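Worked Example 4.2. Consider the chain below.
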Amino acid sequence: MHTLSEIKEVTGAAGNFNVTLNTGARYIDIKKCTGCGDCAEVCPVSLPSVFEQGLGSRKATFRPYAQAVPGAYAISKKDRSPCTNGCPNHVNAHAYVSLVAQQKYPEALAVIQRTLPLPGVIGRVCPHPCEDACRRQEVDAPISICTLKRFVADQVDVAQTPLPEITPRKEKVAIIGAGPAGLTAAYFLALEGFQTTIFEALPVGGGMLRVGIPDYRL
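Applying the procedure from the previous section yields the following structure tokens:
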């Protein structure tokens, strides 16, 4: 049985056919999926339902139809969104914008912080190349992705978010410079359990964020 597959070509004659299939990636482990549907309930992205000929909608995490075999779910994922590709830090803008639309602010912040530990700062000074790549501008105007990043950071108190479980490691890492890059490196190394020490020549941390950007911007 070939699941999530489409017939692309049939050649040969009766009794001796060659069939070419295009099998899509499921992105969900069939052996672990119980078919409960909890993932679809929390999925923030809606798409037209192919099974319903586009008359209804489904989530990006879906089961093709109720009687589908196997009963495991799959994820529609053609590529990364243009806004994510346009971001130098590859922040998943598509995901957190969808979560903001559902007022799931802590979840949106968690998505941002997968690659960006300074959302409140970057949300105020980023030149937002993601918006230049936003396809919404082909209709009217790009989505205000950078402003939404700032909004999420202002809505959630980072100090109140649960601390992650970290397994300490013996390795030590020295980081030169307490600018955004150094702080980011220290942040992700610390999450991996490394003992980090940042060396900074200036009396304050933050690099250009502290000494190069006017206070009224930050």
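DSSP finds nine helices and eight strands in the chain. The beta strands are 5-13, 16-23, 46-48, 57-59, 61-62, 74-75, 172-176, 195-199. Compare this with Example 4.1 before moving on.
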